[in-house]
């Protein structure tokens, strides 16, 4: 037995499994040629960021478009930063916006798939097997430095103004400690961390092909980084390499803040004897501010949290549709050419992603969402609005549920056809959109009467219309009655005629319609007025006309 093997036995006396055993337990996946295995691997240390959802979506698309596997792994080794229900929040956020996983963590202490456990806190035994192998091969060693000693090393390096700082080379105090000394220190019970014996050299560089950013060249890693902390828990760097190998990840897709770690990560894969995955680094989602750009901030921007979109009531289809416009610049052209195609039909390509960071624009999201909702049928709109309102607006939920046929009719107005109205961008706008249909929410508001219509004329219009109004009229008959009111009131049924000679008339037929619309709904801009009056019903229409006339007469 070599000294390295003896050292490994001292460090890991309870580890009997080998890396070969792990290879058999987690064999290569039986997937078609070219299928990609991707993962989303968040830490449960806070809310799911929109950038995290974006990254997860890109990973999901890469797996789905190649017939591969998308998995959710929870990197929860930092228990100090973990929040209560952090895992549940991640799963809920992904599910709410349609980023469904193929395997991995699916709930509290629940997971699916043959390559787990999928929470790092439950994989300690696997990491120790690989760590033991590295010690046996002389590629890792125990370090007994205290925090004070490490601090002293940093201070000396600062004082010397060294370009390269850290635990490496001559600064790696325990790198070349003889075995007998190591044995003595271990038997004394001195706490230790396990460090990589880096094979890197200061004068060497590595190059790799990033699937988004292209070829990147960087200095090789020379740091003897910590692999296992004093409590035996792995660092992120070591754990992710082990996990990605034994979960058979082919493509690591993540934020570009990790680019600086790629030399270390590639080195870890190689020293462990693992195949290096392909890398794709996503530029952060940016926000415009004061003429410049900055990253979306968890602290400053409510829209940074995925929960914001659920609370506001954006349909998941809208959020995904918008994120796809950020993901590939050709998505909007594809959508125009394929207006009814499912999002899954889009030929997503990593190489068409922005290398500098997409600009997040809530106004653009609203426009996208209006298009998405406009394409839904009335029943879908009603059910989705109900689902949102049940959680966020109980009064609205009760009103819509009270008479679902009426609610469905409301959402049917001007829906369908080549040019449907686009009134709604999110479900929290439904209350305002439907308010005038319900006495519980309606308030008489005459502030939007046409500027050229006096209160006296408006009152006269309402009095005349109430007399002429017949709920049984079809739309053509209904409008004919409004036109017939014009001349007796000094108005013209011809809008062009009014525009040519406005001083000759008190108003035109459009003004009369607007007066009726404002009296019945409290607003000037609504969907089709005839349909609104039909849904309101004769008694309610007449009551509102009288109420508005009374208000106008003071």
- Which sheet architecture does the biggest sheet show? 4 strands, mixed
Structural shape: elongated
Q: Helical proportion?
A: 40-55%
At CATH's second level, what is the architecture of the domain at 3-16 and 124-282? 3-Layer(aba) Sandwich
Structural class: alpha/beta
Query: How many beta-strand elements?
Result: 13
List the total number of helices. Answer: 23
Q: What percent of residues are in strands?
A: 5-15%
Uncertain ranges: none
From the N-terminal CA to the C-terminal CA, the straight-line distance is: 104 Å
Mean pLDDT: 94
- Identify the strand order in the major beta sheet: 1-2-3-4
Q: What is the CA-based Rg, rounded?
A: 33 Å
What is the CATH class name of the domain at 3-16 and 124-282?
A: Alpha Beta
What is the CATH T-level topology of the domain at 3-16 and 124-282? Answer: Rossmann fold
CATH 4th-level superfamily of the domain at 3-16 and 124-282 = HUPs
Task: Describe the overall structure.
By secondary structure, the protein is an alpha/beta fold. Among the domains are: 3-16 and 124-282, Rossmann fold (3-Layer(aba) Sandwich); 378-437, no CATH class; 455-552, Arc Repressor Mutant, subunit A (Orthogonal Bundle), CATH 1.10.10.350. 44% of the residues lie in helices and 10% in strands. The chain is built from 23 helices and 13 strands. It has helices at 3-11, 19-25, 50-64, 86-96, 124-136, 147-159, 179-187, 236-246, 262-271, 306-312, 316-327, 331-337, 362-374, 378-392, 394-402, 404-412, 430-434, 455-468, 475-486, 495-500, 509-521, 529-536, 538-552, and strands at residues 37-40, 69-72, 103-107, 110-112, 140-143, 193-196, 205-210, 214-219, 226-228, 251-255, 278-282, 286-289, 292-295. It has a four-stranded mixed sheet with strand order 1-2-3-4. The chain has a three-stranded antiparallel sheet with strand order 5-6-9. Helix 4 links the parallel strand 2 (69-72) and strand 3 (103-107). Helix 1 (3-11) runs antiparallel to helix 5. The longest helix has 15 residues, at 50-64. The protein is elongated, with a radius of gyration of 33 Å. The mean pLDDT is 94.
């Amino acid at each position: 037995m070599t000294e390295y093997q003896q050292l490994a036995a001292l460090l890991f006396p309870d580890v009997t499994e080998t890396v070969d055993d792990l290879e058999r337990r987690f064999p290569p996946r039986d997937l078609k040629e070219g299928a990609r295995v991707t993962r989303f691997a968040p830490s449960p240390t806070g809310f799911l960021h929109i950038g995290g959802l974006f990254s997860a979506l890109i990973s999901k698309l890469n797996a789905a478009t190649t017939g591969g596997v998308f998995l959710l792994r929870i990197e929860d080794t930092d228990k100090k930063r973990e929040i209560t229900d952090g895992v549940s929040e991640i799963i809920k956020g992904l599910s709410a916006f349609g980023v469904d996983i193929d395997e991995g963590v699916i709930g509290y202490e629940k997971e699916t798939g043959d390559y787990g456990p999928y929470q790092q806190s439950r994989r300690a035994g696997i990491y120790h097997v690989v760590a033991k192998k590295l010690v046996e091969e002389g590629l890792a060693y125990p370090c007994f430095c205290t925090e004070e000693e490490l601090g002293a090393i940093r201070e000396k390096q600062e004082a010397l103004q060294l370009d390269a700082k850290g635990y490496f080379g001559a600064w790696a105090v325990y790198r070349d400690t003889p075995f007998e000394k190591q044995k003595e220190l271990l038997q004394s019970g001195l706490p230790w961390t396990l460090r990589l014996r880096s094979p890197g050299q200061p004068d060497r560089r590595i190059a790799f092909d990033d699937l988004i950013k292209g070829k990147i060249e960087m200095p090789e890693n020379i740091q003897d980084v910590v692999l296992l902390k004093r409590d035996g828990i792995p660092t992120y760097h070591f754990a992710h390499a082990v996990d990605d190998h034994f979960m058979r990840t082919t493509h690591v897709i993540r934020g570009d803040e990790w680019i600086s770690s790629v030399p270390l990560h590639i080195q870890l894969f190689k020293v462990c004897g693992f195949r290096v995955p392909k890398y794709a680094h996503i530029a952060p989602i940016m926000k415009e501010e004061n003429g410049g750009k900055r990253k979306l901030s968890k602290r400053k921007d409510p829209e940074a949290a995925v929960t914001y979109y659920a609370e506001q009531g954006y349909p998941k289809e809208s959020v995904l549709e918008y994120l796809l416009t950020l993901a590939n610049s050709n998505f909007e052209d594809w959508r125009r050419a394929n207006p009814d195609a499912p999002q899954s039909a889009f030929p997503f390509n990593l190489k068409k992603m922005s290398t500098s960071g997409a600009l997040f624009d809530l106004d653009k999201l609203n426009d996208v969402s209006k298009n998405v909702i406009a394409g839904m049928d009335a029943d879908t709109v009603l059910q989705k609005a109900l689902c949102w309102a049940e959680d966020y607006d109980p009064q609205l939920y009760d009103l819509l549920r009270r008479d679902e046929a009426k609610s469905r009719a409301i959402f049917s107005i001007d829906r369908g056809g080549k040019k449907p109205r686009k009134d709604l961008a999110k479900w929290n706008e439904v209350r305002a959109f439907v308010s005038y249909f319900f006495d519980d929410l309606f308030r008489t508001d005459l502030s939007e009467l046409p500027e050229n219509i006096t209160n006296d004329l408006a009152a006269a219009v309402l009095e005349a219309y109430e007399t002429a109004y017949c709920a049984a009229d079809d739309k053509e008959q209904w409008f004919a009655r409004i036109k017939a009111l014009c001349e007796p009131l000094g108005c013209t049924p011809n809008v062009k005629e009014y525009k040519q000679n406005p001083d000759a008339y008190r108003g035109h037929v459009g003004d009369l319609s607007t007066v009726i619309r404002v009296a019945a709904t409290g607003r000037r801009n609504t969907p089709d007025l005839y349909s609104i009056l039909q849904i309101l019903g004769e008694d309610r229409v007449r009551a509102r006309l009288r109420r508005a006339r009374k208000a106008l007469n003071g």
